[in-house]
Amino acid sequence: MWAIPLLSIACLSLAAKMEEPKVPFLSEFHTKDYQFENKVIQRMELMVLTTLGWKMSSATPFCYLHYFIRKFHGEFETKGLICKAIEFIIAIIKEMSLVDCRPSIIAAAAVLAALNGGLTRKAMEDKIGCISLWGSLQSEHIFSCYSMMVEIEMRNCKTPKFAISPKYWSVDNVIGEVFCSDVSDGGGGGDIKRKLTFNHSSDQNSLSKKICRP
After folding, report:
1. How many C-beta atoms surround the C-beta of residue 95 within 10 A?
2. CB 3.0–4.6 Å: which of 30, 84, 152, 167 could bond 35 by disulfide?
3. Rounded CA gap, 167 and 198, in Å?
């Protein structure tokens, strides 16, 4: 499917424009199986920016993962812990909008859920007691997110894998791996609120396996 590689290249290009002093040419972005023309990548960049409301510097839960891992788990980080927290974040944003809860709250809940899925309300409050600026309201929101994450994980464990299309499993795995690599290297993730839609009658026909034209 061409959409996922194209979206990945567009996001990488946008990130480079935000972070790199010298931005690579669009022609330098390609994958093993696809090589998109510049105009095609630019169209996808515009779709991503429109979907994000042109808010490229908004904080996401991924920005806070390292901070809360150090607070709740000490200085020692493992890729397994980071990936588990990322899985919880991805799972909960499928169930709720990020505007319903502060990114820092979601990140704290994800780290706690990754560390221990059986915390009581009291145990969780003891854990977050090291955050001096947080009070009872933040504690309530964190526990609410934490409980939802644990519930989602339990529900997923009870769902047979064959009941879910392998196509969607592979996409989730790829997304998780990308976020794991990025966040474990000190980067942040993106805040996607709406799914991109494609006009298959016009866009898909304009793309070929090797050279995709607008």
Report:
1. 11
2. 30
3. 18
Cα 101 from Cα 10, distance rounded (Å): 27
Please list, in sequence order, all residues whose beta carbon lies within 8 angstroms of the beta carbon of residue 192, skipping any fewer than 6 positions away.
51, 52, 93
Say how far apart CA 83 and CA 183 lie, in whole Å. Answer: 9
| Boundaries of domain holding 123 | 61-184
How many structural domains are present in the chain? 2
Using one digit for the tens of pLDDT, what is the confidence trace for 148-206?
Answer: 999 998 888 876 655 544 444 444 454 455 456 555 555 444 443 333 333 433 333 33
Residues 198 and 151 placed together within one structural domain of the fold = no
pTM: 0.56
The answer on 115 and 14 residing in a single domain is no
Gyration radius (Cα) of the chain, Å: 19
Q: In whole angstroms, give the CA distance from residue 115 to residue 98.
A: 22
**Distance (Å, whole) CA 188 – CA 112:** 19
**Tokens, residue 136:** 């009872």
